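Chain and backbone:
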Amino acid sequence: MARILVQEADFDTGAEIARLTAGRTDIGGIGCFVGTVRSPAGGRAIIALTLEHYPAMTEPALARIAAEAVRRWDLLGCTLIHRVGRLHPGEHIELVLATSAHRQASLEATAFLIDWLKTKAPFW
């Protein structure tokens, strides 16, 4: 049910939505969040950031939190993509998609997942 990817390559948001919804007529809402690398406001501009992870820890953690969201909001589908490696301002860093029969569940699940990624995901 959940698609989890941790990768260096960029992603295509439209293609990921199409993959998640292909052939489905029961989806009434798609929650979507696309995170981008930014320079801090009022601070020194950054040239790039390097994000690392330990796959044996990161990927299972993302799978567990996605399963939690699917269960709590009765999602019909879920995609989490998080990039690692050297990233520059303006580049995509993460994608969260959640589908459900109704918009509220998909939006709440998307907010839950992105909050978890920003505060508890094992990236450094």
Residues 55-73 form the longest helix (19 residues). Residues 96 and 113 are 7 Å apart (CA to CA).
